Amino acid sequence: MKYILAIDQGTTSTRAIIFGKNGKASACAQRELQQIYPCPGWVEHSPKDIIASVMAVTSEALSRADITAEDVAAIGITNQRETTVVWDKTNGKPIYNAIVWQCRRTADYCEKLRKEGFSEKIYNKTGLVADAYFSATKIKWILDNVDGARERAERGELAFGTIDAFIIWHLTGGKVFATDYTNASRTMLYNIHTLKWDRELLRLFDIPSEMLPEVYESGHNYGNTNPALFGAAIPICGVAGDQQSALFGQLCINKGDVKNTYGTGCFLLMNTGKKAVKSQNGLVTTLAACTSGKPDYVLEGSVFAGGAAVQWLRDELRIISSAEKSETLALKVKDSGGVYVVPAFTGLGAPYWDPEARGTITGITRGTSREHIVRATLESIAYEVCDLVEAMEKDSGINITRLAVDGGASANNFLMQFQSDILNCEVVRPATIETTALGAAFLAGITAGYWQSTEELNKNLTAERIFSPNMPQLTRISMLSGWRKAVNKTLT
Length: 492
Ligand code: ADP
Known about the structure:
The protein is α+β, with helices and mostly antiparallel strands. It has helices spanning 47-64, 107-115, 119-126, 136-145, 149-154, 163-171, 181-184, 199-205, 227-230, 242-249, 307-315, 325-330, 370-396, 413-423, 435-447, 454-460, 473-490, and strands at residues 3-9, 13-19, 25-32, 44-45, 72-79, 84-88, 98-99, 158-162, 178-180, 190-191, 196-197, 214-216, 219-224, 235-241, 258-262, 266-271, 284-287, 297-303, 340-342, 360-362, 402-406, 426-430, 463-467. The protein binds adenosine-5'-diphosphate (ADP). The site of adenosine-5'-diphosphate has 16 residues, from helix 11 and helix 12.
């Protein structure tokens, strides 16, 4: 009896999950990751801690499942995207901390790029907006600021990788220097149309091509782990960035399939098939995980404050004692009583793009209660997702009739029902909401021949609950119009 092991290296923790043939998790181990804030707006991780956590959770998960490395058919890796590590090719030692995707240290430089008119070129090649979020300007920062780094990079002594590549390097004992399409497509250096590192962008950011990893399909035999690590060699057969991994874990592998992850923020991804859709609404275009051939394209949009709005109710307003309680409170009132919360804590993203906007509560009357505010906050998450869905429908010309959901806040039944009502579409919550890890496991398992086909996987992906729309059309229109008015009051 063999298993698949998924390593999920996220922003706040590293996890290893062991999956069986039926796609169910049989053991899990987790380590928190220390966040390093050297100054306001900067975020780093220790790459050494990341590797140590990967080793620790892998060994712990094996022992919890009471199995050995020989019982594992393949490893799948999924990771926080864009986070950047530069290391020495001779010994694997990082020359600086990992610069995390959230880190804003290169925001001014990106602003300069946009002012100088580079946005369109960057978008046309990479599908991304010129932003500090993506890896390119983080690599440039390291080369410009670490003593001797640029010279060493030019001599071919240094390697750049997103977290997946850094983990692969260490698990294979420095033998394999590779990443996958999904991670490469978030670096702002990879041409998603030619599927090559883009020479012109490398020149623009002054990054030597010797630093870059090979790029493969997400489902690919990347190489074996060093047998000394876990007692036997295990092939690494799946690699994908977290959001694309979740898309694969939801088996959104056909054109028009959409999933939304309700975490701290929300990430909406649509598979648009072999066509890269250009967005007129501020969405980005990126690559999907695939197991062979050319990858599909994906439209992606994100909401900055999703579950974070619920955290705000709990930690700052202190009107709920736990995230789960928000559901009970919201259901105590028949509606939000005309209250709208716009949780624009750090500005509004797609389709509004107003970084200066700040949160607002509108429609408060003498009768407004905490239940109304809680309900309106949950509703706001659904409205934000609804705005993204509309933008995506406009860009793709595809009508979304089914939304696959996952992430922590997807456990909230009120939120999911309201989402279905306000979108007027089915919302499908799978039995395993660990779809990020499941996606990496699926990719590895298919590549290793552990599972034969995506049809077989489909049997493993049972819906735990399907929410069907149940709101009169007129109510829906009037509620959406109330939301738009509230957003307009928020925009600067
Ligand atoms: P991340 O991966 O971004 O850390 P998770 O997928 O673990 O996020 O989800 C955590 C988020 O979901 C938190 O912001 C939390 O407030 C929210 N959340 C968790 N459970 C619920 C719930 N039952 N109702 C509403 N929000 C919830």
